[in-house]
Design a protein that fits this description.
This protein is of the alpha/beta class. It has five helices and eight strands; from the N terminus they run ββαβαββααβαββ. It has a six-stranded mixed beta sheet. It has a two-stranded antiparallel ribbon with strand order 2-5. Strand 3, helix 2 and strand 4 form a beta-alpha-beta unit. The relative contact order is 0.24.
């Protein structure tokens, strides 16, 4: 990673695309099963090249307990990289709401479930949006401390979590040096 002697960087990478089928119409139970399948899915094979991430340059990679995060980290940084697996880096939880007679695309189920969760109506049995934001703040603190000690921190995690970590880092004085979006394998680089 190219940094000046006084620059600290945090690299946030979203996992690769999970191998799970999204086509068709889903009832409530099938949509719930989709979430379980997504969380257990391996990722598609991919080629990863990024100008700011030279191959083999990183030895310590933060990632979540979800397999898609760990598999992506290993594919990018190699088996010799030390994965620091922390449950704090898992994606914000989600669950679909019960409408047993409807059959809808899974993307509809997930989008409505997420909107209701943001509003505080769909968090029974899972972490609330407020708890998730607090966890994102903890993740930002962990990454900032790592960057202070080693000039750089890198995490392979999840789209929504990464966005909230970046919000917290901005509040801590970090700025977005490279915007990569939130798609699969997106790379966002924060700097201070």
């Amino acid at each position: 990673m190219k940094t000046s002697p006084s620059t600290q960087q945090i690299v946030l990478i979203r996992h690769a695309r999970p191998m799970v089928e999204k086509r068709g119409l889903y009832n409530f139970r099938a949509a719930s099963q989709f979430i379980s399948d997504y969380d257990a899915a391996h990722v598609e094979e991919f080629v990863f090249e990024h100008h700011a991430l030279p191959a083999g340059a990183y030895k310590k990679i933060f990632c979540s307990t979800l397999i898609r995060s760990q598999l992506t980290a290993k594919a990018i940084f190699g088996d010799e990289a030390a994965l620091v697996v922390m449950p704090e880096f898992r994606e914000f939880e989600r669950k679909v709401f019960a409408l047993p007679w409807l059959r809808l695309p899974v993307t509809f189920w997930l989008a409505v479930a997420r909107v209701l969760w943001f509003m505080g109506f769909n968090s029974r049995g899972i972490e609330t949006f407020k708890q998730a934001r607090k966890r994102a703040k903890q993740c930002a603190t962990v990454l900032a401390q790592e960057a202070e000690e080693n000039k750089a921190a890198i995490v392979v995690a999840h789209g929504l979590l990464n966005n909230f970590i970046m919000r917290e880092l901005r509040r801590m004085g970090w700025r977005l040096q490279e915007k990569g979006g939130s798609g699969f394998l997106a790379v966002n680089i924060m700097e201070r």
